[in-house]
What we know:
The structure holds 2 protein chains of 2 kinds.
Chain A: E1 7-18, E2 25-36, E3 40-44, H1 51-58, E4 66-71, E5 74-75, H2 81-91, E6 92-95, H3 107-119, H4 124-136, H5 152-164, E7 170-174, H6 182-199, E8 202-207, H7 210-214, E9 218-223, E10 226-227
Parallel strand pairs in A: 3-8, 3-9, 6-7, 7-8
Antiparallel strand pairs in A: 1-2, 1-4, 4-5, 9-10
Helix pairs in contact in A: 3-4, 3-5, 4-5, 5-6
Chain B: H1 2-12, H2 16-51, E1 58-61, H3 87-90, H4 95-103, E2 108-123, E3 126-135, H5 146-149, E4 150-153, E5 161-165, H6 166-172, E6 179-184, E7 189-198, H7 203-208, E8 209-213, H8 214-220, E9 229-234, H9 240-251, E10 254-257, H10 258-261, H11 263-301, H12 303-311, H13 316-346, H14 369-392, H15 396-401
Parallel strand pairs in B: 3-8, 5-7
Antiparallel strand pairs in B: 1-9, 1-10, 2-3, 2-6, 2-9, 4-7, 5-8, 6-7
Helix pairs in contact in B: 1-13, 2-11, 2-13, 2-14, 11-13, 11-14, 13-14
Amino acid sequence: MSQNHDQLLVVTDVHKVFGSEETATHVLKGISFTLYRGEMVALIGASGSGKSTLLNILGTLARPSAGQVMMLGKDLTDADDETLTDFRNHHIGFVFQFHHLLPEFTALENVVFPTAVREGRERTTAKERGTALLTLVGLDDRLHYRATQLSGGQKQRVAIARALMNQPELVLADEPTGNLDRASALQVMELLADINAESQTTFLISTHDDQIAARCSRQIVIQDGVIDA
Amino acid sequence: MLYGAKMAWRYLWSSPGQTVLLIAGVAAAVFIFIFMSALIGGLAELLVNRTIGNLAHVSVEAPDRALPVLVQQPGRQVLAMRQVSTRARLGLSAPASWEKILREFHEVETIAPKLVGGGVLIRGDVTRQVSINGLRPGHESSIIHFDRGMVAGSALLRGDGLLIGKKLADDLGIGVGRTLTLRADDGNETSLTVSGLFSLGVSQLDENSAFIEMGTAQALLDRPGRVSVIEIRLADLYAAPAMARRIHAATGLDATPWTDTNEELFEALKAQGNTGSILKVFAMITVVIGVASALMLTTFRRRSEIGIMRAFGAKRRFILYVFVLQGSLIGLAGGLAGAVLAIAALSPFPPIDQVQPGQLPVDLRQGAIGLAVLLTTLGATLAALLPARSASRLDPVDAIQQ
């Protein structure tokens, strides 16, 4: 895992400050770590420790105040919005605590979204892949159900399928089980572990649940904006 | 951008009640727009028909020649001075050449040369002073609409034919087919047969004018090959002042627009048109405000979805497109609905020339239906720009965390 070509994401001395001068809040204080291809890593920390902020930066949704984020050998720190949007679409998937599905769309339409928005239409090939992914997450009988017609666990599984749609190298999951009951949470974690094992997709899963974290191959603990060695 | 269009459509129909209300609001504004255009256009046409319907929009004549200046000489005194315009006497020679030039202006709809002189109609010992008007055969109704006001006989003129008003004929005690004498001011006379009687509701024409064939008039008034004036009707009568200036610049001839002789009417029509424009502008403002506020609400409600779309690779221009397209679709649907409503509501109104006293002079042809639909669609699209722009600039992190 230590070879350079296995490095997927290299984070170097990342800082994030919100506000300015007297009102400034230093949320991340020099975060550095590396993610390797095929890893499933838990990002552990209490609420307010900076987990979500770090995930937003790694997902190119937010910019660091200082430091460097390199993914697939590309420095994303100063890239423009258009480049970052393209990069995200091709290489990063997201699973949020609240599924955030598009309510007017069916499960299949939600899953297909990342490809359709890139190609400008919903091609048959995309629909076939979306169907396969929904089958993978056990929702082949819910393809044409609207998001509002699904249970919380089902919605989260649709969100996982959506995150995998463009075959991203990295999936960032922010408390993916935080809004689910225990049984559903374990099912979702099982699913993520299976996908990780089969597709070698790298997962970085933020959680404050030790049991969930224990299912990952590695843990990064963040406390008060710094990585706790 | 098929996918963007699908999203816009889906979003619109996710709240059918709100969308239908919005479209109804836009349709109402478009209805007002079309109704005002049809009413003001119809009213203007009615006024124009009844007042200047039988006048030329531009009259082209030979320019006045400068009169010789009488120079005061020492020891001599001017006792009497008589100013005579040479224009009326000479008129325009080679009218066909001038007509050819005037036809080059694409705004010109009809051209009709006319020879004018003074004379007296004589039947036995009854005489009536008339204005003699020589018209080119086949173009009798080009400027004055004899064809709409014929009471007896035909409006077509032949060599010895005479077209006069019914009132004048009654004064002279004659009818169609009767013969009488027309004597010009300079003493020339000719014998004519009444070929048609008209009643146009304009006393000058009905009681004091005689219309004869151009060749006959040129012989009678002793002006062979000449005409007094070339009368022009334009596609747009309000373009007359500008057209007159252009004709003068191009030909050097005197060109008088109808507005110079009917200034008050022109001002009244302009004021009426401006009032209509203001009402139409307000109708459009209503559309813009309605669509903008509804879409602002929609974009606010969908902030987290917009954030998710951005997270999964939707570019700013995609978000902009989805929300602008919603505005355009509302504008187009409302515009078409308003147009259909207006056509249905205004079609039963009679044509302007059949409007009876007390009836609204609504002319659907002047309803500017296409313009109303186009402006509404454009207005709604512009109205959607602001909320769409703010949606496309949302910070995805803020939006998702909302």
